Amino acid sequence: MAQRNLDVYKRLLTYSRPYLRRIILAMIASLGVAATDVATAKLVQPLVDYVLNVQNLMFVNLVPVVVFSLAGVKCVSRYVQDYFMKTAGQLVVQDLRNEMYDHSINLSMRYYSKHTVGSMVSRILNDINMLQKSAADELVAMIREGLTLIGMVGLLFYNDWRLAIVAFIVLPVAVIPASQIGRRIKKYVRKSLTNMSTLTAILQESFSGIKVVKAFGTERAEKEKFHRENWNFYQRMRKVIRYDSATAPIMEALASCGFAGVLWYGVQRVMDGAITQGELMSFLAAMGMMYGPMKRLIKSNNVIQKAIGAAERVFEMLDLQPDLTDCEGAIALPRCRGHVVFDKVDFAYDDEPVLRGFSIDVPPGKMIAVVGASGAGKSTLIGLLARFYDPVAGKILIDGYDIATVTQNSLKQQIALVDQETFLFHDTLYNNIRYSNPAATDAKVEEAARLAYADEFIREMPEGYQTIIGDRGVRLSGGQRQRICIARAILRDAPILLLDEATSALDTQSESVVQKALANLMKERTTFVIAHRLSTVMHADEILVLHEGVLVEQGRHNDLLEAGGVYRRLHDMQFEDRR
Ligand SMILES: Nc1ncnc2c1ncn2[C@@H]1O[C@H](COP(=O)(O)OP(=O)(O)OP(=O)(O)O)[C@@H](O)[C@H]1O
Ligand SMILES: [Mg+2]
Predict the structure, then answer these.
(1) Distances from the Cα of 334 to the Cαs of 126, 387, 401, 411, 490, in angstroms?
(2) Mean of per-residue pLDDT scores for the chain
(3) Which of 54, 189, 357, 578 is the least buried, fewest Cβ under 10 Å from its Cβ?
(4) pTM score, two decimals?
(5) How many domains does the chain have?
(6) Is 377 in the pocket of ligand 1 (CB under 6 A)?
(7) Mutational test site, ligand 1, from 111, 115, 346, 354, max ligand atoms within 8 Å of CB
């Protein structure tokens, strides 16, 4: 347990290495602070013995000068120490936060489908904040108090080692409760951070799902859910506070025992003439000044334990191996022609198989349509091609390259995807479309928008392409959002185009216009089109019919109709609907 804490702490310290210069400077300044404290305690003795008792006027005039100079040194040192130590702490936290984000965004879709956005946010913000409040700020105090403590202890033993031993009897006694308390604090801080992440997840969900909340009038239930979790968080924090608050009184009680002992024994030694009154006073002053840092150090231990609790969670996250990475010696896939092969691909998200023995061979430039009931595995299929997941068995090849053996980056360069769930960023329309190709000029963006049949409505907006759309494009209609996403895919200019219900929200007329535009685009590209509306896919070079993850039919529209199978049934149902 203690070893693990130490490991976590050591690992945390490695992050401070780049800022060693600041830290050393701060430490030197701490030395100044500690030295002035020790000097103050030491000077009590000449004050009593030479100034007060002897009444030497020259020394009396010196007193304010000495006091003022000491204070000056202490103030400057303290400022330097605080400034450099705290900026170092902030920089360390910055680095950690960046590393957390970089690491998180590299994790696979599998990871993201199993964790709430809120909990991810919470780790990066709340856990690191806890670390910052604790480790960064407290490290300053630890070093300063530690140095002062060492100085005072030295002075005590130098003054009178017998008295010093009496004063220190309490120290080993104090260590036991301190370590117990530290352990509990760490435990409850960890737990409280778990609560905080649930709390963040609730927030994130209720705000991003605010329309559902409003539609079903479930504000009250949401409030209750939030209040309950907030209360749970308080319960955890209450435990932390309980142990935290007990620390100071326990230390106070122990310190008073030490004082009592020293007074009792010290006065006797003055009476025996073993030490002077001044020496006793100096000893008591040093002791008073020593218990201060000691108490604060023990309190610091609590805070450090909090930091370790948070750091454990942070490191757990950083230690997660991304389960989908570039393989050893992965090569960059050059711009491909778009020859796509699925070779006996099996896939499951969990245990339930979603694709079984799926094989196809698509020559470059062909348009492939994928149809089938909801949940048949259509989106999964193109997700595999985009390598969101790796197949459980089998291979996927592009131009003969197994996509598992090429760099993910180069693979993504070959692909433009319009997903079933349209997502737009909180940014201008220009930037939303340009997202797929940051180097594209405004003219290119506008051309893509024209092809996607989006130019017209964009120009009608108050600020045209400069209009900022909400974080989920709330100011656009479903069909408009889809057209922005299509424009984004067009601008990507990739050899493989994946359209997952890309035109489902458009009316029949706009859909046929967009289809025409896409048809132009598809000419030199391999395209996978998923659509429920069969009119969208009937012109495809090949139609794949998926049923519960199995490819059951394959062919052109007319052939499939004649065959009279699943496709025929789907077709007749839609035809009947229309009649
Ligand atoms: N991230 C996921 N984790 C676990 N199971 C999933 C995940 N995504 C999809 N599934 C499951 O895999 C199966 C296929 O889903 P998929 O999204 O491929 O269907 P689809 O054919 O695209 O359906 P739709 O027409 O409704 O979009 C479904 O049974 C679904 O429940
Ligand atoms: Mg789907």
Answers:
(1) 42, 17, 10, 9, 20
(2) 86
(3) 578
(4) 0.82
(5) 2
(6) yes
(7) 354
For residue 175, the domain's CATH number is: 1.20.1560.10
Q: Is 319 exposed, middle or buried (0-12, 13-18, 19+ CB in 10 A)?
A: exposed
pLDDT at residue 471 greater than cutoff 70: no
Q: Where a domain ends, among 258, 285, 318?
A: 318
- CA 126 and chain centroid, separation: 9
Q: Is residue 324 part of a domain?
A: no
Rounded Cα gap, residues 137 and 145, in angstroms: 13
Q: 62 and 17, same structural domain?
A: yes
pLDDT per position as a tens digit, 18-38: 998 988 898 888 888 888 888
Q: Are residues 178 and 109 in the same domain?
A: yes
Residue 481 lies in a domain: no
Distances (CA, A) of 291 to 144, 373, 444: 14, 75, 71
Are 279 and 159 spatial neighbours (Cβ–Cβ below 8 Å)? Answer: yes
Show Cβ contacts of residue 369 under 8 Å, excluding neighbours closer than 6 positions: 528, 529, 530, 531, 536, 537, 540, 542, 543, 544
**291: three-class secondary structure by DSSP:** helix
**CB 380 less than 6 A from any atom of ligand 1:** yes
Ligand 1 atom closest to Cα of residue 380: 18
Domain with 139, as residue range(s), is: 2-318
Q: How far apart are CA 325 and CA 316, in angstroms?
A: 19
CATH number of the domain that residue 569 is part of:
3.40.50.300
